[in-house]
Amino acid sequence: RVEAKLRLPEVGDDVTVFEDVRAGFTVAVGYVRVLYGDHGAYLECRPDQVRWERFEPRNVTAEYYDLYRAITPGRVQVYLQKRTVEDKANPPQGRDSKNNCRPEGYADYRPGLVYISVKQVK
After folding, report:
1. For residues 48 and 113, is the Cβ–Cβ distance under 8 A?
2. What pLDDT was estimated at residue 51?
3. 89 CB contacts (<8 Å, ≥6 apart)?
């Protein structure tokens, strides 16, 4: 579905431009891969691929990630991963969440990388 809608292969590149669906400004250029986990599909980006000037910190005290939100009128949220979720068999509640009770964790989030919901970009 993600590959068809956004025309994105699972393996990334350094040239694809991602824009905020609401504001239309560029939020990232390039991506590592599309991550499919039990909490939905996310773009996985290196920090240098994110246009940080378009974001402001919202919650940098969370245990697993630092959350940044696009400046107004943007909609995109980015999650700078601090630690894996290998100790979480199921994702947080949400429309796209699926409880599969995975012993290895609900998604392969990698510390130091950035995650953006594919639903928030075009």
Report:
1. no
2. 98
3. 100, 101, 102, 103, 105, 106
Contact, 23 vs 75, CB < 8 A? yes
Q: Measure Cα distances from 111 to 16, 21, 65 in Å.
A: 22, 26, 8
Residue-averaged pLDDT of the chain: 93
- CA-CA distance, 38 to 108, in Å (whole number)? 10
Q: How far is CA 4 from the centre of its chain?
A: 18
Q: What is the DSSP letter of 39?
A: T
pLDDT > 90? residue 3 = no
Does an H or E element contain 5, and which? Answer: helix 2-6
